[in-house]
């Protein structure tokens, strides 16, 4: 199944930040996004890359600051609706250009990658 535009941008940003892919060249990363979504302009790809990269780096700091909450949630592993903390609500609002489900995925991926593994 092909990634939609937001999924592709997040995938590229994650690889760029976490693994230094695309030779750590932002323009190269943006061109890869555009290659997969030629219906989007290069400017639109650049704009989304910038928005997602800012949110991702903010999320790294956010998760580090709130890691006790994520350890507790991981330990309890309750199924069902995840009740967002006040801090998470604020974080999500600060990055409202990114779909909420993508932000939640970002938070949990970063917690797992930076703190669990």
General description of the model:
The chain has helices at residues 5-19, 26-36, 42-65, 67-76, 86-94, 100-116. The protein is elongated and about 45 Å long. The chain is mostly helical. The mean pLDDT is 93.
Q: Summarize this, please?
A:
With 117 residues, the chain is mainly alpha-helical. Helix content is 74%, strand content 0%.
Q: Which descriptor suits the 3D outline? A: elongated
The count of helical stretches stands at 6
List low-pLDDT spans: none
* Structural class determined from secondary elements: mainly alpha
Helix content: over 70%
Radius of gyration: 15 Å
Task: Note the main attributes of this structure.
single chain, 117 residues, mainly alpha, 74% helix
Q: What order do the helices and strands come in, and which of them pair?
A:
Elements: H1 5-19, H2 26-36, H3 42-65, H4 67-76, H5 86-94, H6 100-116
Helix pairs in contact: 1-2, 1-3, 2-3, 3-6
């Amino acid at each position: 199944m092909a990634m939609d535009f937001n999924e592709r941008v997040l995938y590229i940003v994650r690889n760029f930040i976490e693994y230094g892919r695309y030779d750590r060249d932002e323009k190269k990363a943006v061109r890869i996004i555009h290659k997969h979504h030629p219906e989007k302009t290069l400017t639109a790809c650049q704009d989304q890359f910038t928005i997602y990269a800012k949110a991702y780096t903010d999320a790294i700091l956010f998760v580090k600051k709130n890691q006790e909450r994520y350890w507790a949630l991981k330990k309890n592993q309750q199924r069902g609706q995840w009740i967002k903390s006040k801090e998470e609500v604020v974080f999500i609002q600060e990055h409202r250009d990114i779909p909420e489900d993508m932000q939640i995925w970002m938070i949990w991926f970063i917690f797992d990658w930076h703190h669990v593994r």
